[in-house]
Amino acid sequence: MGCGSSNPGVANPPDAGDDEILAVESDAETYNPNLYDAEEFDPDLARPLVRIMSASSEFGMLRAGGAKKEIEYGLRDVSYNEEEGNVRFYLRGRPIQVYVPTAEMEGFEVARPIPAPDKTLKLDWDCRSNLYLLPTGELVYFVAAVAVLYNVEEMTQRHYLGHTDDIKCLALHPSKLLVATGQTAGHDRKDARPHVRIWDSVSLQTLHVIGVGEFERSVGCLSFSGADGGGLLCAVDEAPDHNISIWDWQRGERGHKLVETKCSAERGNTIEKIYRGAHEGGVFSICFLQNGGNTIEKIYRGAHEGGVFSICFLQNGTFVSGGGKDGVLREWDSNSHEPTGRELEIPEPYGPVRTITSGKAGTVVVGTTRNSVVRGSFDGAVESCIAGHTDEVWALAAHPHQGQFLTGAHDKVLRMWDSMSHSVVWAKDMEDGVQSACFSPDGSTIVAGLTSGRWVAMDAETREPRAGGTDGNEPIQVVKFSPDGSLLALGSRDNFVYIYEVTEEFSKYSRIGRCSGHSSFISHLDWSEDGVNLQTTSGDYELLYWNASVCRQIPQSSQLRDVAWATQTCVLGSSVLGIWPTGADGTDVNACSRSRSKDLLAVGDDFGRVRLLSHPTSSVKASANVGLGHSSHVCGVTFLVEDSRLISIGGRDMSVMQWLLE
């Protein structure tokens, strides 16, 4: 959201005990190398064929997803006062005090082990390139740290999860079965170094991992040789010198570098057989080289209004060029080196052309700079295959009764997704970047909080505005209706929570007042089940409670120890003690969400992981099941109706990922 073959060059797996693996299957539909203990795992070696439903079950030392880094979980310096029934701990030196419910006070142990839940996470779908069509009929492209194999006709995805950080490029072997993907350097330069992985597109098995320690910044471009059947691989490092290296990738598991040379400071666009797209002195051109040599035979200037970003050969002998600015695909005759006159314009909302590949029955498939994949032909129309956000994704909300959800981003677009059809139901352009969103309890109304301090209430089906307003000039960080829909709370980056009375079927909003008391921006808020109280957290790790109808803070937090909360998104509280890593500075955990059945808790953190824990997580020794795929901060998580699926959003990786709970 193919059948395999054995490969003698793949290393045998180290032994793994049953206590280390939650779910392993042998059909290899989703491959993940991050299975073994940190002491056993060598990040430079390719991993064998396994399917991991959940990356690990951990307490104490957690194998940190793609980073292969040991992350220790469990707050230190935690104390429990039996008489007061409160737990005290520290985040970045600041004391935090939370109260345990009365029913749990007797015999409460702050460090008792809590096992991971029976449910595990399997990546089902992601929504967001280098782009190729495989013989299986699947499109292969990448998003964040995941290589996606997408069957357009069946609307299904498979995923290669071997990388440790953002994939930057992809190349298809002449056999059409092997794929090479190159990644950037991760936050931990030692354990997430840039490298290239060569893997089987049918079995999703890693065959070779090359270049670990050889690339400086990131692998920006890859290409297999054509004359010798793909025996060599060319890689370009995005370091200042743009080093080009040639690899005998089949020599051993790590390959062998044959030669390396420095390139010019400017990056080239694309090379395909004997044609080259270029940007020369402000004139965008296509260069025709003599076959078998490097002498320029002809230059066609003004081929596109913008840079020529991609060239692709079609089965009829012609080739297609794509303009990075004009959004036009232009067909060329391979013999005369002249345009045939046939053009295909990509509609502006999809964005400029970034990459092209040949599709079925004379069609072309295009990846754009706005994270969209479209297909069409020179004789027909263009249709969307995949659409995604083009800037940081921060807003996420699940429909209360249907398998649909909202996402919003700083690209000023609000999207409604259907989790079953894996498609965009609708997209709406907003005046400003979208920071937060929510549904009304009946699902009829949507409220979107914008980066400008404005908020808009709209009909969920027609997208027609119903109301709106402005509260301050800072982003509206979080919006949420009370359980009965009579009140609306908006938490702002200006440190205030604004409360509105909602009447006339969610079309009239009257401001009651604002809650003042936080000394930093509002990060999360939850309503009590009776709609009387609010709990809020802020950027300086403060947990406060409020009487919402009068916008008054309740300083005696012990009075609310037994309040039942309609949701649990606040990352501070007695029921979420176990979500924090050891030595947490308060910014490590970005989001959490309790399932509707109240027995599961999903957590998104700064390390690109989605963690699934049992709820309540009222102990610092809580084990979790982990989902890997994001390459940046996980900014939001939410369960869909019936708790069968979980949605996560990545901030800077601009991805939306859907997980199956199995």
How much of the residues is beta strand, in percent?
A: over 45%
Q: Which architecture name of the largest domain does CATH use?
A: 7 Propeller
Tell me the CATH superfamily of the largest domain.
YVTN repeat-like/Quinoprotein amine dehydrogenase
Q: Structural class of the secondary structure composition?
A: mainly beta
This entry's quaternary arrangement is single chain
Low-confidence stretches: 1-70, 265-283
Rounded to an integer in angstroms, the radius of gyration calculated over CA atoms is 26 Å
Coarse shape: globular
- Summed up, the domain count is 3
> What's the helical proportion of residues?
under 10%
Got a strand count?
A: 57
Report mean pLDDT, rounded to a whole number.
Answer: 82
CATH topology of the largest domain: Methylamine Dehydrogenase, Chain H
End-to-end distance, in Å? 15 Å
What profile does the largest beta sheet have?
5 strands, mixed
How many helices? The count is 1
At the first level of CATH, the class of the largest domain is: Mainly Beta
Task: Please write out the topology.
Layout: E1 24-25, E2 30-31, E3 51-52, E4 57-58, E5 61-63, E6 70-72, E7 79-81, E8 86-91, E9 94-99, H1 102-105, E10 121-127, E11 132-133, E12 138-143, E13 146-151, E14 156-160, E15 167-172, E16 178-183, E17 196-200, E18 206-210, E19 219-224, E20 233-237, E21 244-248, E22 256-261, E23 270-272, E24 275-280, E25 283-289, E26 296-301, E27 308-313, E28 319-323, E29 328-332, E30 339-345, E31 353-358, E32 364-368, E33 373-376, E34 383-386, E35 393-398, E36 404-409, E37 413-418, E38 423-429, E39 434-439, E40 445-450, E41 454-459, E42 465-470, E43 476-481, E44 487-492, E45 497-503, E46 508-515, E47 522-527, E48 533-538, E49 543-547, E50 552-553, E51 589-594, E52 600-605, E53 609-614, E54 624-628, E55 634-639, E56 645-650, E57 656-661
Parallel strand pairs: 2-14
Antiparallel strand pairs: 1-3, 4-54, 5-6, 7-8, 8-9, 10-57, 11-12, 12-13, 13-14, 15-16, 16-17, 17-18, 19-20, 20-21, 21-22, 23-24, 24-25, 25-26, 27-28, 28-29, 29-30, 31-32, 32-33, 33-34, 35-36, 36-37, 37-38, 39-40, 40-41, 41-42, 43-44, 44-45, 45-46, 47-48, 48-49, 49-50, 51-52, 52-53, 53-54, 55-56, ...
